[in-house]
Amino acid sequence: MKTMKTLFGISAAFAVSLLATSALAQTYPERTITMVVPFSAGGPTDTVTRLVAESMSKDLGQQIVVENVGGAGGTLGAGRVASADADGYTLLLHHIGMATSATLYRKLAYDTLNAFEYVGLVTDVPMAIVARKDLEPTDLKGLIEYMKANKDTVTVANAGIGAASHLCGMMLMSALQTQFVTVPYKGTGPAMTDLLGGQVDVMCDQTTNTTKQIQGGTIKAYAVTSPARLGNLPDIPTAEEAGLPGFQVGIWHGIYAPKGTPAEVTERLSKSLQLALKDPNVVARFAELGTVPSAEAEATPAALKAKLEGEIARWKPVIEAAGQFAD
Fold it and tell me: What span is annotated as the signal peptide, if there is one (predicted)?
């Protein structure tokens, strides 16, 4: 009899839990949602986040406030969300650094694969290999020869460990099998400022950050890292075309929620994301930035989880070969 009462108690508790979850899913969201960007305001990921957040807010009927929590290559912001209440009111929009930080950082405050629930992929931004406008080489083959010949003095800027430009720089060193002098900055803005001013030589960064400067002729572009040329930069060859076979680097972005967030809530967010990525304003603004929204099939929890797992495995040997770790 005691066993029956225990079983009944467990069943009743489970039923109450199901009802609470169902009620949350039906009423969610009831208040403002915070979407954390783990980088500074005004950067490429921040730009993408604000466009998507604005569109999702319209569908969800509640405002999504973007909060910039920069530092430690995005791990501070990710850690903030990992420790937040699992109620769907604190989200994270992070780029490929979510995958690379699992190897880059010897100590993380969270388990990358197991500290989050997944909402969906947002976009995959190509990179551009650029340089100060007065650098001598006129094409990518010439740039490669120049960098190899001057490997001890040529400077490659990045926005700090874990930033997209840092990752692309490591991939470039791996592809060329040559180490260069890397110059880390505290953000994309200062790195670009010094490239524009000629204080550094080369950078590989997202087209969301380089397109305007390329179009304005204030920096020199050698290649984009996408499979095909970009519509807004039609004269810039792909790295494959320009003499760097197989060099394709995309800085994908995804939305996450704290572990334990009800599946009904993450599914609601995923549906809202899918609608946002079809929003004509989002599509048009993404095109201006040199990227496209993720397809509906990619803006799902399952697709983002699979992407993260695959990218952790892909980047691990690249990072280990570069030997650029952070504590």
Answer: 1-25
